[in-house]
Write a structure and sequence with these properties.
The protein is about 35% helix and about 25% strand. By secondary structure, the chain is α+β, with helices and mostly antiparallel strands. The structure holds adenosine-5'-diphosphate (ADP). Adenosine-5'-diphosphate binds near residues 60, 89, 91 and 99. This is Homoserine kinase.
Length: about 300
């Protein structure tokens, strides 16, 4: 087997209370990639369809992730990559993470799976370092592992898969405004009040327990972020209204997807998620800002092999 085609999903990182540690994968949007094994220790991005992103391997996150894998391999192998991108870069839905994760999962299959999912996340994180300046794992982990993930520790890297209730749906709206990840990081405070930290880790624990017990009410109560959201949400027009109106029609809760500007809401069942989609659209129609909306079940599988 020398060639493989994969689907690689968009992801929602942070998930309200879990800044830099929690994330989950979506069924859509997602990209497709073709990865080919070659007998030359190099990485070539041959095709980039959908968005205008660099073809130079060291400037494309897929290339950077694969180069970091090749760095640890003694064999004379390398990879050629084609990317068919549907997830808009800079949307807050893990566009770069999808490319990094898809590339390393596909390459690992072609090599006979020498690496664990945690190893793959470590390589993919180098792609994230290129995209945002920090090697965070909260998008690449759910893309690789599927479902919900918790990055319990970065040093050493310890990624935990968390059970995902069957009826959990996400509605994600991407308003067409630009929020730079670097700006979204810079405005954060460097110091926290202990009382806020206590509330936040209570919520992270509650969210994990709620997911594992399929306790939708507990999931909803725990989707609260007292640290990052109060500051970052200022960058997103109509944020509070979207949240409020989504909850009125039955959403469990939600927040900023990644560093924004996308907003995610979680719901029990597709019917409620559809209602959330309608009120999100209505809110942004009123404000007069264009948007994309994605409705998706939480994707339990992550990167999926489409064919060889
Ligand atoms: P978000 O998570 O908000 O969607 P990203 O983490 O996807 O944002 O960051 C996008 C940045 O990464 C852009 O600056 C883009 O140019 C860069 N980039 C490099 N290679 C890729 C790739 N293969 N896919 C997506 N973005 C890439």
């Amino acid at each position: 087997m020398n060639e493989i085609r994969v689907f690689t999903p968009g992801t929602v990182a942070n998930v309200a209370c879990g800044f830099d540690v929690m994330g989950f994968a979506l069924d859509s949007p997602g990209d497709e990639m073709v990865v080919r094994k070659i007998t030359e220790k190099t990485v070539r991005i041959l095709k980039m369809e959908g968005f205008n992103l660099p073809l130079e391997a060291h400037k494309n996150v897929a290339g950077v992730a694969l180069l970091s894998m090749l760095n640890e391999l003694n064999d004379n192998v390398g990879f050629e990559v084609e990317i068919y991108k549907k997830i808009k870069p800079g949307s807050g839905i893990g566009s770069s993470a999808a490319s990094s994760a898809g590339a390393v999962v596909a390459a690992n299959k072609l090599l006979g799976e020498p690496y664990s999912n945690t190893d793959l996340a470590r390589f993919a994180m180098e792609g994230e370092r290129l995209a945002s300046g920090t090697a965070h794992a909260d998008n690449v982990a759910p893309a690789i592992f599927g479902g919900f993930t918790l990055v319990r520790s970065y040093h050493p890297l310890d990624i935990i898969s968390i059970d995902t209730p069957d009826e959990l749906y996400a509605t994600v709206i991407h308003p067409q405004i630009e929020v730079k990840t670097s700006d979204a990081r810079e405005i954060l405070k460097r110091n926290l009040l202990l009382k806020d930290a206590i509330r936040q880790w209570g919520n992270v624990g509650g969210l994990v327990a709620g997911l594992m017990r399929s306790d939708y009410e507990l999931i909803g109560r725990s989707l609260e972020d007292v640290i990052v959201e109060p500051i970052r949400s200022i960058l997103i027009p109509a944020f509070q209204e979207v949240k409020l109106r989504s909850k009125e029609v039955g959403a469990l809760g939600g927040g900023i997807s990644g560093s924004g500007p996308s907003i995610f809401m979680l719901s029990r069942g597709q019917e409620t998620a559809e209602k959330v989609k309608a009120v999100m659209a209505e809110t942004y129609d009123k404000v007069g800002i264009d948007y994309d909306i994605h409705l998706s079940k939480v994707n339990k599988q992550g990167v999926k092999i489409l064919g060889r």
